[in-house]
Amino acid sequence: MKKLKAPMLALLMLLSVDTFAMDNKQLAFQLTTLFRSSRSIVTKNKPFIGNPRESLKGESPDDFIISFLIQTKKIYKKTTGSRFPPTDDTPEGVLRGHLIDSIVSVIIKAVKGQYEGVFKYSPATHFKKGVNVYDNKFLPARYAVEVMKEFNARTEGKALLKLTAPDKLLVKRSNAPDEWEKKILNSIFSKAGYERGSPFSEVTTYKGQKAFRQLLPEYYKKGCIGCHGAEAGQNGPNIHQSGKGYPLKTLGGGISIIILMDG
Predict the structure, then answer these.
(1) Which of 52, 170, 220, 246 would disulfide-bridge 241, Cβ 3.0–4.6 Å?
(2) Chain-wide mean pLDDT for the chain?
(3) What residues does each domain of the chain span?
(4) Which of 11-15, 37-41, 172-176 bottoms out in mean pLDDT, i.e. has the lowest?
(5) Is 160:257 a contact under the CB 8 Å cutoff?
(6) In the predicted model, what is the mean pLDDT of residues 170-177?
(7) What is the pTM assigned to this prediction?
(8) Mean pLDDT, to the nearest integer, of 247-253?
(9) With bands split at pLDDT 50, 70 and 90, how would you rate the model's confidence at 98?
């Protein structure tokens, strides 16, 4: 068998890495977009936020989750122009399956009342003491944390989802950006000409291991501003690390995903 010359071998290895990165770029966007699609349903469902179990109104938990997934996939398709890919035995399909299973698990727990009494003021947040308006509410941010915890456990750390935000906008302390996320939030997304809403992707390292990373930016919309805004009746000053509220279209943070790579 004819041996490949060193330059050709190096080129093939480089192409392989680039292809792997491109595959992960697509996979990461699929996962973050499906997650965001599911969270948008929670954001719009005020009775569910108030009390998931009581919001069923005679609907069974199974019927509720079927409807929830159908709506999630409709929003995903509207956002991307494509259907959410299958959950199969490929590495990519397995990760997609883990996310679907995590969403289902969290919604089922919520409508069965398993989170009741769990969410109260905590020093793990930047909530001002005495702010109890969010006690026992199944907020979109709390939904996000629960789904991501489930997903990260199911993947055994091979892929990780996390919400993050600029320091001044932090609400939950554990969402503080790491150095890579800070760089993207503070420098890349603010660059003149950077396409608003476009995710930033990079092959880098995570805790000493080669990793594909992507950060999908999020901006304050109408559904966010009641909690994060600065106007009368809005709670930004009571929940942000900065003690301030912020207007619509502010870069509020991003959905961060890490996919560990071999080698």
Answers:
(1) 170
(2) 89
(3) 13-260
(4) 11-15
(5) yes
(6) 94
(7) 0.88
(8) 95
(9) very high
With contact defined as beta carbons under 8 Å apart, do 240 and 126 qualify? Answer: yes
Q: In angstroms, rounded to a whole number, what is the distance separating the alpha carbons of residues 46 and 240?
A: 22
Question: Would you state the pLDDT for residue 9?
Answer: 43
pLDDT for res 127? 86
What is residue 125's predicted lDDT score, i.e. its pLDDT? Answer: 87
**Can you give the pLDDT at residue 22?**
56
* CA pair distance 55, 212, nearest whole angstrom: 39
Q: Return the CA Rg of the chain.
A: 20
d(CA 224, CA 247): 10
- Token duo for residue 194: 């950077």
